[in-house]
Amino acid sequence: MALAASQVPTGAKPYATDAQRWAAVQRRDSRADGQFYYSVRTTGVYCRPGCGARLPRRENVAFYDSRAAAEAAGFRPCKRCRPDAPPLTKRRAAIVATACRAIEAADESPSLAALARDAGMSRFHFHRLFKAVTGVTPRAYAAACRAKRLRATLPRAGSVTEAFYDAGFNSSGRFYAVADGLLGMRPRDFRAGGAGTAIRFAVGQCSLGAILVGATAKGICAIMLGDDAERLVRDLQDRFPKAQLVGGDASFERLVAKVVGLVESPGAAADLPFDLRGTAFQQRVWQALRAIPSGATTTYSELAKRIGRPRAVRAVAQACGANPAAVAIPCHRVVRRDGGLGGYRWGIERKRTLLARESRLPAAAS
Fold first, then answer.
1. 0.70 exceeded by the pTM?
2. Which sequence positions are flagged as catalytic?
3. Integer Cα distance of 123 and 102 in angstroms
4. How far is Cα 283 from Cα 227, in angstroms, rounded to an integer?
5. Which residues contact 149 (CB under 8 A, 6 or more apart)?
6. What is the per-residue pLDDT across 218-263, written as a single tens digit (0 to 9) for each?
């Protein structure tokens, strides 16, 4: 009986024998693609092990270590699995990369139909592929590109009108309908480097040390934890260098009290308004973090799978590190694969304490 690839002894080549290779072909094991190729005498073609074509009879199959060997034996590449082309995952990534470059370079965002046509795919399949590879839709990616271009052009443009046309908006109505969401403030305020934008803030103490809460008129834009209250204020100033920082009034103190309550009881529900600005990818990660229930933990790799980007583990970790709202966006619930606590922007001991409170178990060393 042939061994499955996962059953091959450690250190042995998984597809060294014809029996192992035939077992991989029977499984249509795409993990074996590039390891070997097989030909079919009755059709005159050679294929990848993972080819989805009808399974041939064993007596008609021969195996080769390379494409060159199969072609030298007189076989032509299969038109279905295209063994003479890069692997499917690389081809798909190249298609999406080309589309991303087209979106980034275009004066106006290309339509889904145009992008799909250039990729040689239907709109449905292109949309699904783009989202599977990037984690966002083509429209969301185009919006992020326009926002990035707008932020770059506003400070140096001759006027706001000139900036929004340069960023790819084809009408003033369309621009002003989304400008505040893209910039987090009025265009003329952003053009002035955030000058005039008011951010109310307050610094207090909680069981985890100093806590700073900052908010725009739309909602909370920062929750920071630390040991030094003055350092937290400097960090807020660095994040919003030209904004007007205003001490919170009595109504703001009530908002701060809600945040402190969330810190003291991190599993409690809190209806807090937010104004958190980040890339489309970061927003997806932060949304996924908020879906992790109190008392539960996950890993960066599991989180990447949840947002449809299983290979973007490092980018997910960076988005967690960029989280501007401690505890409210519970990045403390992400741990290492081996169960260790891993890192935490606001200190590993605070992470340990938060997890212990949520699990209602004594804090244990990692």
1. no
2. 47, 331
3. 16
4. 28
5. 166, 167, 168
6. 888 899 999 988 889 888 888 777 777 888 777 788 888 888 888 8
